[in-house]
Write a structure and sequence with these properties.
Elements (H helix, E strand, L loop, with lengths): L19 H10 L14 E6 L2 E6 L2 H10 L11 H8 L8 H11 L7 H23 L4 E4 H18 L6 H13 L26 H25 L6 H6 L12 H32 L1 H10 L15 H13 L6 E4 L4 E3 L2 E3 L4 E4 L1 H4 L20 H9 L14 H18 E5 L7 E3 L3 E3 L4 E6 L2 H5 L1
Length: 463
């Protein structure tokens, strides 16, 4: 009798009814397990308490209305900035309205069309450096914490593509180190998103958060000022930083100031490093959980003998697996918008100022939308249900005008590094160490993701 396939780990939901105080306690510990199980079936949920009024929406039509059809009516909640402003300032992640539109007009050209092909050599170099580091770290069968591996790799990609610097560069290495300290100090969706505090009330941060943010911004400022000097001298490399810093707003002719560029680089690093590292770590774990899929990807990875960008078109299975990892473990588990005017959702009045919570975590596992919602199935993307859900219920990078600028970038980086690692190493689960997902800055494992890493022989990687 064939044993059933294991299910990817999922945090236990809380009971349907708990006190407000208990809910806030659970929320501070972990966003995911603080939510009731019924949200995996509900089209909408309303949450009311003193000074709190929020709506979580899972119905595809409502999500399309908020993100695509009328995004100006549902701006990003400024409460999200409560925890992140010390680091991100007025970055494109936090702004709204004309400020945000101006920022996107300057940033977007750097990520258009052929720029992916131009940045590919830097991505590939980072992937090869990741494999080389892993080779030095392991003996046969050594256990590694792969979130550390993927964080290092994703940070390397960002610095190589943005500033043409490997992660070993002194400033890059220090930024990476301080970001690791910062990542668990502030949840992306914090209590302030639900609990509107008076403006006069002081905001409290965990120990070291403000100091770390200030130091990170100082280091980014140093890189930005150095690059501006290179641009003025005509010696700047043609990378993403140079492209963004020399792009003028087509409507005003203005370019980013140094301080504005610091804001944007901070979110590039946060979004491009944290989210990619999270998704890639879960993809590696899923490959250890499903060794048949791992071997299929390892065989496909022979395509990487071709070092050009065209090799990416041959990594179809890797792309499907990475897409499935993003479905099961969306790096940003929840997003918050604010009702800019009174509206009606499902015959309920949504007052101006109410918080609108969109949860990729629940949407991607919604029992009334997806076939086998909690199961791992990379073939789903070629089924009718999968194709429909990908259009209507799959938002790992958000959707509409505020879709992540780097979405295409991430969908090259993830499958590339995943394939490169599987080409060289075999991954095995460690008994008793299966990860438990929790949401901090992104969806990570409560105690890391530990896998046994075994070098592949050359015969294994090409068989």
């Amino acid at each position: 009798m064939t044993e059933p396939l294991p299910q990817p780990p999922k945090p236990a939901a809380r009971p349907d009814k708990v006190s407000l105080w208990r809910y806030l306690q659970l929320f501070r510990q972990d966003i995911l397990s603080a939510q009731p199980g019924k949200l995996y079936r509900a089209w909408m949920a309303e949450f009311r308490a003193p000074r709190i009024h929020s709506f979580m929406i899972n119905q595809p039509e409502l999500i399309a209305r908020v993100l695509k059809d009328a995004p100006d009516d549902f701006p990003k909640s400024d409460r999200i900035a409560e925890g992140l402003k010390p680091l991100l300032g007025n970055s494109v992640f936090l702004t709204n309205g004309e400020t945000w539109k101006r920022q996107r007009r300057i940033i977007d050209p750097a990520f258009e069309g052929g720029r992916l092909k131009e940045t590919f050599p830097a991505m590939r170099a980072a992937a090869e450096a990741c494999v080389a580091r892993m080779g030095k770290q392991i003996g046969t069968g050594r256990v590694l914490e792969v979130e550390e591996v993927t964080s290092h790799a994703a940070a390397d990609v960002i610095f190589r593509t943005l500033f043409s610097l490997p992660i070993e560069h002194a400033v890059a290495a220090e930024v990476f180190s301080r970001f690791r300290d910062y990542q668990r100090s502030q949840p992306l969706l914090n209590l302030a998103a639900f609990l509107p505090l008076p403006r006069w009330m002081p905001r409290f941060f965990r120990s070291g958060t403000r100091a770390n943010a200030a130091k990170i911004r100082g280091l980014i400022r140093e890189l930005t000022e150095t690059r501006m000097a290179q641009i003025n001298a005509g010696t700047a490399p043609d990378d993403l930083a140079t492209k963004i810093m020399t792009t003028s707003d087509p409507e005003t002719g203005e370019q980013f100031t140094t301080e504005e560029m610091v804001d944007q680089v901070a979110i590039f690093f946060l979004a491009g490093h944290e989210t990619s590292a999270s998704a890639l770590a879960w993809a590696l774990y899923l490959m250890a959980l499903y060794p048949d899929w791992q071997e299929r990807l390892a065989k496909e990875a022979c395509a990487l003998e071709d070092e050009s960008f065209s090799a990416m078109s041959k990594l179809k299975l890797s792309r499907d697996v990475f897409r499935e990892a993003l479905r099961l473990y969306p790096p940003v588990p929840m997003m918050v918008r604010e009702a800019g005017c009174p509206v009606n959702f499902r015959d309920r009045a949504v007052p101006k100022g109410a918080q609108i919570v969109l949860s990729p975590w629940h949407l991607h596992r919604h029992e009334r939308l997806w076939d086998n919602p909690d199961g791992f199935d990379p073939t789903r993307w070629h089924s009718e249900n999968g194709k429909t859900c990908q259009r209507q219920a799959y938002i790992p990078f958000s959707a509409g005008p505020r879709v992540c600028t780097g979405a295409g970038f991430a969908m090259v980086e993830g499958p590339l590094i995943l394939s490169m690692i599987l080409r060289h190493f075999q991954l095995e689960r460690v008994s008793g160490s299966d990860p438990v997902p929790v949401a901090h800055l992104t969806v990570r494992s409560e105690a890391g993701i530990h896998l046994r890493i075994i070098p592949r022989s050359r015969d294994q990687s090409v068989s």
